[in-house]
Amino acid sequence: MKEIISPINFREDRLPPGQHWVDKLIVLDIAGPPPVDLSRYRFRIFGEVEEPAVLLWDDILDLEKVKLTADFHCVTRWSAKDVQWEGFHVNEIKKLVKINHDVKAVMIHSLDGYTTNIPIEYFFDEDVIFAYKLFGKPLPADHGFPLRLVVPKLYAWKSAKFVSGVEFLKEDIPGFWEQRGYHMRGEPWKEERYS
Ligand SMILES: Nc1nc2c(c(=O)[nH]1)N[C@H]1C(S)=C(S)[C@@H](COP(=O)(O)O)O[C@H]1N2
Ligand SMILES: [Mo]
Fold first, then answer.
1. What is the pLDDT along the chain (195 residues), one digit of tens a residue?
2. SS3 assignment, position 24
3. CA 52 / ligand 2 centre spacing (Å)
């Protein structure tokens, strides 16, 4: 299996400004884990694509697997070192749909009603994966079962849990927290916490 270590782990300034290390991930979400029946689960790829796609849970498990080790930085100032994830790389999506040329961002949609926007160049990056395992075990409900995004180079609110789909957008528009004052991009080393 391909193994990726995020380049952020090798930075000289590994801990972003205003952050402190904690021993493990702290559970944070707007509504708690939604009920999930894997036989009814659907992952939708839609928006600015030639032909939308819908994946069943088994289709997701058939995608090429990848392991990722990456630090995790929450805007509420805690950071967790060397979190280990397993899932599929975002580039798998490019094999499933033809994305329109003028795409600027994605909106990630979640089963709890959460959304978050990510500029396209931060979404299609070397260390961005959709994860269904955490430290070698199925993703716990609290941490995003059945599937979550992991975007190591941005604050953790962009790493959406309980993901139901990805929408490609011609314009970067705000998601749940971004509508409530969080930054449109959220780069931890630039302290892009609020807008
Ligand atoms: N669907 C969903 N994803 C979410 C959230 C949420 O409320 N709903 N909270 C975000 C925030 S603010 C953080 S810090 C991380 C926390 O991830 P963890 O609970 O696995 O530590 O999830 C992010 N992803
Ligand atoms: Mo967060």
1. 999 999 999 999 999 999 999 999 999 999 999 999 999 999 999 999 999 999 999 999 999 999 999 999 999 999 999 999 999 999 999 999 999 999 999 999 999 999 999 999 999 999 999 999 999 999 999 999 999 999 999 999 999 999 999 999 999 999 999 999 999 999 999 999 999
2. coil
3. 30
**22: CB partners within 8 A, 6+ apart:** 78, 79, 80
This prediction's pTM: 0.99
Ligand nearest to the CA of 29: 1
**Are 177 and 108 a contacting pair, CB within 8 Å?**
no
Q: Ligand 1 site: residues with CB under 6 angstroms? A: 25-30, 74, 110, 112, 114, 143-144, 156-157, 159-162
Q: Where do the structural domains in the chain lie, given as residue ranges?
A: 2-7+40-190
Q: Report, at the CATH architecture level, how domain 2-7+40-190 is classified.
A: Alpha-Beta Complex (3.90)
Nearest CA to ligand 1 atom 16: 28
Q: Please give the torsion angle defined by the CA atoms of residues 189, 136, 111 and 116, in that order, rounded to the nearest 10 degrees.
A: 10
User: What ligand is nearest to the CA atom of residue 144?
Assistant: 1
Give the Å distance between the CA of 156 and the centre of ligand 1.
7
